[in-house]
Amino acid sequence: MMAQAPVEEEDCPELIPIEDQDQQEAGGKGEVEPGHSLKIPVTIITGYLGAGKTTLLNYILTEQHSKRIAVILNEFGEGSALEKSLAISQGGELYEEWLELRNGCLCCSVKDNGLKAIENLMQKKGKFDYILLETTGLADPGAVASMFWVDAELGSDIYLDGIVSVVDAKYGQQHLTEEKPDDLINEATRQVALADLIIINKTDLISQEELYKIRTTVRSINGLAKILETQRSRVDLAEVLDLHAFDSLSGKSLQKKLQHVQTTHRHLDKSIVTVTFEIVGNTTEENLNEFIQNLLWERSVKDKTGNPMEVIRLKGLVSIKDRSHQVIVQGVHELYDLEETMVNWKEDDERTNRLVLIGRNLDKDILKEVFIATMTEKQENS
Ligand SMILES: Nc1nc2c(ncn2[C@@H]2O[C@H](COP(=O)(O)OP(=O)(O)OP(=O)(O)O)[C@@H](O)[C@H]2O)c(=O)[nH]1
Fold it and tell me: What is the ipTM of this complex?
């Protein structure tokens, strides 16, 4: 899969080995297998059409910083992304090749979802230590995020660091409350629901009251993500990069974070909400898998009116019987993963399972009941 046109091989610049120290600074995952370099983080930038994704990427590409970032711009959307990236590239020529910019960043514009560009980029390993991938305004970032879990070969070189969603302060309210025919979830809402960081951009165009309103709507959908407010997508890079939203490094901070997440409330009848719950005790891996699979795969967990619960994002810290370390649960749509953290349960710690779910038709009490039922079921029998 990584094999690419051998003709260009000769033109390829010599690979520069990545120093360990660089990696530490870049917040790399730190998993070094013999003969392998460290994994490169990928941040997915999503957001509705015109929200300010390209503005954010261009800001990062032109700003002076010490990071060597590779940016993949998606040219969907009347070519606006392309036009702006061309403004940065010299000469205004179309390019699909990787372009090296003055501040050490690499940039490439693609037509598809960026997977090919990443494969292509990996041939330049050593020239960058971070990847930013912009999805098209109408894309479901969950599908892109899933690629990193499903594609084992890709997963050995890179890891998903986080999903950043840019929301248009002026039109976001409209995008997020728009009801879709056939009971579908609209893209804007899905993008906010999946995000680990939400940037409410274009705050110059709205009043304080409007800002409060959009912030409340965003929070009502996603109770977990951090929210930033910007003009021209100007953010501190440290707030966007190295979120470690999906890996076990987040173990300790996740525990603190999950304690403060609140269940949110609907702003529309069929809207997306965040539900949190905590159940004291131990579960087993088998029982936990059953709970998650019933929820995500079988769709057999239903709300009071008989509608299946629909989970877009799932996060949790759980206690597995006979395991001394805390375990993280991560889910995006129907994909999920259990990963042991570095954090030990202490002797006098109360063993608990804390879960956060973002989705539709979620009922906290029913979820708790089902979790408890699955948790005790097979332990009692064994
Ligand atoms: N007033 C105002 N305009 C902004 C701001 N940020 C971006 N814009 C403008 O909004 C328009 C859309 O910005 P883009 O960055 O292209 O948005 P995008 O999300 O990449 O758009 P698509 O690629 O079409 O999905 C551009 O004309 C920007 O100049 C802001 O903070 N305030």
Answer: 0.98
